[in-house]
Design goal:
It is found in: Secreted, Extracellular space, Apoplast. It is a single chain. The chain has 588 residues and is mainly beta. The chain has a domain of 199 residues: Immunoglobulin-like (Sandwich), CATH 2.60.40. The chain has a 6-stranded mixed β-sheet with strand order 10-9-12-17-14-15, with no helix packed on it. The chain has a 6-stranded mixed β-sheet with strand order 21-20-25-30-27-28. A hairpin with a 2-residue loop joins strand 14 and strand 15. It starts with a helix and ends in a 20-residue tail after the last strand. It binds 2-acetamido-2-deoxy-beta-D-glucopyranose (12 copies) and copper (II) ion (CU). The site of one 2-acetamido-2-deoxy-beta-D-glucopyranose (NAG) has 4 residues, from helix 3. The site of one 2-acetamido-2-deoxy-beta-D-glucopyranose has 5 residues, from loops.
């Protein structure tokens, strides 16, 4: 019965997709290129979305007087162009690479039903677009609604190659909250004085930590708290008494962030392209890869107020600077000499991070239903660790001359030289192994202090997990304190969103913890912060056949191997199988 209903839905969806495909599909033409002697740019987002019918983007750039360098951009913009679409639409983006590095683009949070070909991660679903080449991504939206984003998924180029992907309700439909006066994307990003590609290359060569960023930015600008950067600070104009929708995207490379607006409270209404039960809060904690839709009412005395963001980070060195923008009321008043700054939680305040995160619940009403798997076919228990690999003559820059690494279930992912998708589709042997383990190779007190050195060294390999079509999958991610390096890891899954059904501190207990799961209205997300020395349990139905990357969204961890791939097999019919590849694929 259940199965029958499901395949009917699939059939309908399939017809719908074909039907949409036969109409004209908008294609955006993008050029990835090096912007020389750049600049921190200011992007002015569309001021008023007069109706839902308005698509595309408008933005202007003005040069900033300080700090010029070369950066990789899309169409010369940083952050990159914002795409506005309606729920369920389909569009194409032709990306031509005029830069000097290989590049790919990922549509973060878009499920791409049956279409891994356009998902983007380098050597997982495609070989890169080489300089001079191009690729047309076919983006298929389904039930995503709210804020998502797009970013490069090759090396560290996503530092500057990223932008908003905003999915409005269907034509003629509204939000599940009063229509805001205006909507403003707030893109948080990292700014490195050095060349990001050189930074990660050097770090991987020498085995040590990559350089930290030198600033964070809001919509391309670091803000007033950095030297000589006042000129371009992003300003959001508001009218007293009106409510605004902030579409916040954490595009930062290596830090989770607290975000606040001075003297104003926030109401979080959505995350990762799905609505939630509204949360009133003074601050949010947002990890790289996550997005949050936040309402703010201009209900304070007309003036200037800072919005500000800084790291939530608990280990090692991190960028401890604070980025700001200004909420500025329209009207006649004397501007303050300095706007009030919000009192952000301390960098290491794990309680503050957890207190916010555990409040997330799906909206889960008649109009926005959830479909949480109540039973499980495949259980996976995955440990997340920082590690080291031995280095010849102990000559590397990691601890005791070792090379830094990281792993999932003690497997440190190795990027293949032919993409996994192509190898799977064409049956090319020797590119990957299908033995990614369902549980850690050994059990110990994962969150214990001073764990033995014998736990330091992971196995290296390109190991994937193969899942049956339509199976219900539960993954429990277990944070570990190997190397005394426990921290919050934002785990991201491509091709799906998933329900976060449980969370806790310490070691997951498979007899008692599942009894406390929320199977009624858990949040539906594509990225979840696995708490420091804690765990989260996620569930999803494997109903999207394809090859899907799963990884930590802290960029240095992903570079060190905190990644794996889920292959979801075809169903029994062509409409439950992967789509055919596009006519042109970039060669390896
Ligand atoms: C598709 O585009 C072509 C050329 O721009 C136009 O002639 C045609 O009418 C369009 N078809 C539809 C269904 O919009
Ligand atoms: C993309 O590359 C092909 C050759 O591979 C070329 O024929 C085509 O004109 C290019 N398209 C764009 C938009 O650059
Ligand atoms: C990384 O930081 C070191 C020390 O500050 C500096 O010497 C080096 O040039 C930086 N590397 C890059 C690629 O910016
Ligand atoms: C902002 O809040 C602080 C205390 O939280 C208060 O001292 C200050 O007067 C407020 N500023 C304005 C402009 O309302
Ligand atoms: C930020 O980090 C630097 C070292 O990188 C340190 O000197 C400084 O005291 C730190 N500032 C704060 C506010 O923690
Ligand atoms: C944040 O840390 C500082 C210095 O460690 C401390 O003085 C302050 O009380 C802390 N604030 C909060 C809210 O815990
Ligand atoms: C977190 O929540 C607990 C319980 O509600 C509260 O006692 C604590 O003060 C909160 N901590 C922070 C940093 O908000
Ligand atoms: C996290 O766990 C707490 C305690 O069981 C629960 O109340 C909360 O709903 C959970 N939240 C998430 C997002 O998992
Ligand atoms: C694991 O280690 C933590 C930290 O030392 C400790 O609090 C906890 O009791 C240990 N758990 C077990 C089961 O030994
Ligand atoms: C719980 O985990 C243990 C390993 O610690 C395993 O042997 C057992 O099968 C698991 N039980 C369930 C119900 O998954
Ligand atoms: C760019 O991609 C091609 C094709 O996979 C590969 O052969 C080449 O080594 C890559 N170049 C760099 C610098 O990674
Ligand atoms: C789905 O699976 C892949 C990988 O095994 C095959 O290459 C495809 O041919 C198959 N698609 C269909 C429609 O069966
Ligand atoms: Cu991580």
């Amino acid at each position: 019965m259940e199965l029958k209903k499901k395949s009917l839905v699939f059939l309908l969806l399939n017809v719908l997709i074909r039907c949409i495909a036969s109409q004209n599909v908008t294609t955006f033409y993008w050029v990835v290129s090096i912007d020389t002697s750049h600049v921190v740019h200011i992007a002015r987002w569309p001021k008023v979305l007069s109706s839902f019918g308005k698509l595309g983007h408008r933005s202007q750039s003005v040069l900033h007087p300080s700090g010029t360098k070369d950066i990789l951009t899309v169409n010369g913009e940083f952050p990159g162009p914002a795409i506005y679409r309606h729920r369920g639409e389909r569009f194409n983006v032709n990306v031509r690479n005029e830069g000097k590095y290989n590049v790919t683009i990922h549509w973060h949070g878009v499920k791409q039903p049956r279409n891994p070909w356009s998902d983007g991660p380098n050597y997982v679903t495609q070989c890169p677009i080489k300089p001079g080449a191009n690729f047309t991504y076919e983006i298929i939206l389904s039930d995503e609604e709210g804020t998502l984003w797009w970013h490069a998924h090759s090396d560290w180029s996503r530092a500057t190659v990223h932008g908003p992907l905003i999915i409005l309700p269907e034509q003629g439909k509204g939000y599940p909250f009063p229509q805001p006066q205006n909507e403003v994307p707030i893109v948080l990003a990292s700014w490195f004085k050095g060349d990001v590609m050189e930074i990660i290359e050097t770090a991987l060569q020498n085995g040590g930590e990559p350089n930290q960023s030198d600033a964070f930015t809001i919509n391309g600008q670091p803000g007033d708290l950095y030297d000589c950067s006042t000129e371009g600070t992003f300003k959001m104009m508001v009218d007293y008494g009106k409510t605004y929708l902030l579409r916040i995207i954490n595009a930062i490379m290596n830090e989770e962030m607290f975000f606040m607006v001075a003297n104003h409270s926030l109401t979080v209404v959505g995350t990762d392209g799905a609505y939630i039960k509204p949360i009133n809060t003074s601050y949010i904690m947002i990890t790289p890869g996550q997005t949050m839709d936040v309402l703010i009412t201009a209900d304070q005395s007309p003036s200037y107020y800072y919005m500000a963001s800084r790291a939530y980070a608990v280990v090692g060195a991190y960028d401890n600077t604070t980025t700001t923008a200004i909420v500025q009321y329209n009207g006649n008043y004397t501007p303050p000499s300095t706007p009030p700054l919000p009192n952000l939680p301390n960098y290491t305040d794990t309680d503050a991070a957890a207190n916010f995160t555990v409040r997330l619940r799906s909206l889960a009403n008649e109009d926005y239903p959830v479909d949480v798997p109540q039973t499980v076919d495949t259980h996976m228990y995955i440990t997340i660790s920082m590690n080291t690999l031995p280095c010849v003559n102990n000559s590397c820059d990691g601890p005791d001359g070792s090379r830094l690494a990281s792993s999932l279930n003690n497997i440190s992912f190795v990027e293949p030289s032919i993409d996994v998708l192509q190898a799977y589709y064409k049956g090319i042997n020797g590119v990957y192994d299908t033995d990614f383990p369902n549980e850690p190779p050994y059990y110990f007190n994962f969150t214990g202090d001073d764990l033995p050195d014998t736990l330091l060294t992971p196995e290296r390999g390109t190991k994937v997990k193969v899942l049956d079509y339509n199976s219900n999958v539960e993954i429990v991610f277990q944070g570990t304190n190997v190397m005394n390096a426990a921290e919050n890891h934002p785990m991201h899954l491509h091709g799906y969103s998933f329900y976060v059904v449980g969370n806790g501190t310490g070691n997951f207990d498979n007899s008692t913890d599942p009894t406390r799961y929320n199977l009624v209205d858990p949040p539906e997300v594509n990225t979840v912060g696995v708490p420091k020395n804690g765990w989260v349990a996620i569930r999803f139905r494997a109903d999207n056949p394809g090859v899907w990357f799963m990884h930590c969204h802290l960029e240095r961890h992903a570079s060190w191997g905190m990644d794996t791939v889920l292959i979801v097999k075809n169903g029994t019919t062509s409409s439950t199988s992967m789509l055919e590849p596009p006519s042109y694929l970039n060669p390896c």
